[in-house]
Design brief:
Blueprint lengths: L5 H17 L3 E6 L5 H16 L3 E5 L17 E2 L10 E5 L9 H6 L5 E6 L10 E4 L6 H11 L6 H14 L10 H12 L4 H9 L4 H11 L3 E3 L4 E6 L1 H6 L11 H5 L6 E7 L6 E8 L6 H7 L3 E2 L3 E7 L2 H21 L1
Parallel strand pairs: 1-2, 1-4, 2-3, 4-5, 5-6, 8-9
Antiparallel strand pairs: 7-8, 9-10, 10-12, 11-12
Bound molecules: adenosine monophosphate (AMP) and manganese (II) ion (2 copies).
The site of one manganese (II) ion (MN) has 5 residues, from helix 2.
Length: about 350
């Protein structure tokens, strides 16, 4: 027999996940460390839908709930990992490309699971689940979950509805990035028809920044540099600034879009000294040009993501990490423009 088409395989995987949901009672939903709107939104969306059909559900994130997403109804359900394993039948890993990015403590509390279901849209996903529903053409895991929940005829309570909207909106840069499709807008329209208050939810997502985020922006602007004839822009955040401004991890979320938006810039990078004694550096990368695949660059350094948005966690110190990554970026830019 020939291999099933990707569409047929996708539908079969959705049916399989439906069977798993039906035949089990307890579920633990995880997402990646330093969770963003898609990670937490996906946890709440699927979690509240499962609760609505009477399942026992735990929502755990290695780093807990970021303050900027606490407005989401249902967000109080997201907790940091307890010390002991949570005895559950099924674990869902959402919006997470590699198993280790779930975090050590989160993985430990998932140790007693019988089945691991991996639902994600990262092209670099390693298919580490027993069941893998991976769609790299989807702009957000929240969009895959909308399709899953509706295909299986599961309920979409207001908590799930709002969480899916925030997941999609934040991962598409407010429905702007190239991965946004007609289907993405149709889903948003469907959510509005189900009662979503679009003005209120956008206001809570985008108009409620703490003042320290602007102070962070000021500090970052002081480090901004252009290179490669204006094709590459980068800025960095040092531990000292983090402490001085009492920053939280989520405060920098989305700020990279400011330098990505500079005319002529094709690649934007954000380098950040992470707290802790390991001296690790977090790198965020954005590309505006399909010929410069930042996921490929990230993979060289053990990171991952998407072609136009990717990230790395790598050894420091900051200056050494910057030199290595910027060198790889400039090589990619050179070859993109000389081919
Ligand atoms: P960020 O720059 O943190 O917004 O991440 C951009 C994209 O790359 C997101 O889809 C992340 O999930 C992914 N990503 C970020 N850091 C990593 C990493 N260390 N490993 C794999 N994927 C990552
Ligand atoms: Mn994410
Ligand atoms: Mn995502």
């Amino acid at each position: 027999m020939s291999d099933p088409t990707p569409a047929a395989e996708h539908s079969a995987t959705i049916r399989r996940i439906g069977d798993i949901i039906q035949s089990h009672q307890s579920f633990l939903l995880l997402s990646h460390v330093r969770p963003d709107g898609d990670a937490i939104g996906s946890q709440i969306a699927l979690g509240c839908s499962l609760i609505a059909i009477g399942k026992t559900v735990h929502l755990v994130n290695e780093d807990g709930l970021p303050e900027n997403l606490a407005f989401l109804a249902g967000s109080h359900l997201v907790t940091p990992p307890p010390v002991d394993p949570i005895g559950v039948d099924v674990v869902f890993a959402l919006d997470n490309a590699t198993e280790s990015r779930l975090g050590e403590a989160a993985l430990k509390c998932a140790a007693d699971r019988r089945i691991l279901v991996n639902i994600d849209h990262h092209v670099s996903n390693t298919r580490y689940g027993d069941v893998n529903l991976i769609d790299p053409t989807s702009p957000a895991t929240g969009q895959i979950l909308y399709e899953l929940i509706t295909a299986l005829g599961m309920p979409l309570p207001p908590e799930s509805r709002d969480a899916i909207y925030v997941a999609i909106s934040t991962d598409t840069g407010s429905f702007q990035y190239p991965a946004t499709t007609a289907r993405t807008y149709e889903i948003a329209a469907g959510l509005i028809r189900r009662g979503l208050d679009v003005g209120a939810i956008n206001s809570k997502t985008y108009d409620e920044h703490p003042y320290r985020r602007l102070e962070l922006m000021r500090a970052l602007l002081n480090t901004l540099e252009l290179s490669a004839d204006g094709l590459v822009a980068h800025w960095d955040l040092r531990e000292r600034t983090r402490v001085e401004l009492a920053l939280r991890p989520e405060d920098s979320e989305g700020l990279i879009d400011t330098i990505r938006a500079i005319r002529g810039v094709q690649v934007a990078l954000f380098f950040e000294e992470l707290p802790g004694d390991e001296g690790k550096i977090r790198v965020s990368m954005r590309s505006k040009d399909r010929r410069i695949d930042v996921c490929r660059i990230a993979l060289e350094f053990g990171g991952g993501g998407h072609a136009l948005a990717a990230g790395i966690r790598m050894p420091g110190p900051l200056e050494a990490a910057k030199a290595r990554v910027l060198d790889a970026v400039r090589r990619a830019v050179d070859s993109a423009f000389t081919d």
